[in-house]
Amino acid sequence: MKLFSLFLFMTVGLFSGSKHFYKDESITSLEIERINSRLGDIRNMVSLNHNYNSKIAFLVDMRVPSGKNRFFVYDLEKNEIIDQGLVAHGSGSETGVNGMLKFSNEPNSNCTALGRYSIGKNYKGIFGKAYRLAGLDATNNNALKRAIVLHHYSAVPYEEQDYYISRSHGCPMVNEQFFKRIEKIIDSSKSNIILDIYY
Hints:
Layout: H1 2-15, H2 29-48, E1 52-61, E2 71-75, E3 80-85, E4 87-88, E5 115-125, E6 128-135, H3 143-146, E7 149-152, E8 173-174, H4 176-188, E9 192-198
Parallel strand pairs: 1-9, 7-8
Antiparallel strand pairs: 1-2, 2-3, 4-8, 5-6, 5-9, 6-7
């Protein structure tokens, strides 16, 4: 049944005429299952609070290696992924074991913090345009204090790699080309978009 759902998902995307910036076959059924497990809470959250965008959500699956696309732009109305890209995790999240990460909300840990974030206003920082992130869970409520922001960086590649990409100081850091696409979505939104980072 899962394989049929995946086939249907890919077929609908192919014939709907919607513009996708990724290869459908690069998303595994396990990744789709993990995305689906997060959507219930996100839908509930945006339905209860109209300050949040009810059409689009961003999801980052930290179980996916950093060299593979793991930042997903999800259309909550059409129930489909409409874009994806690479995203770096914090250097402090490295454990020395490939595929295993640790997470922390502590200042100066340089770790990625798991949880849901509200994407706030943009500002111009050392990496150019960036978006402030407010942590909405106990696991990431120090985000503003830690200056955890969504930004781009030239060292993050655009194409998927067979090796790990550069790491950040805890920020979700993406490629500039991918950033330009999500920037359009964020800037055109009248309400805050939810970014969910999970493992």
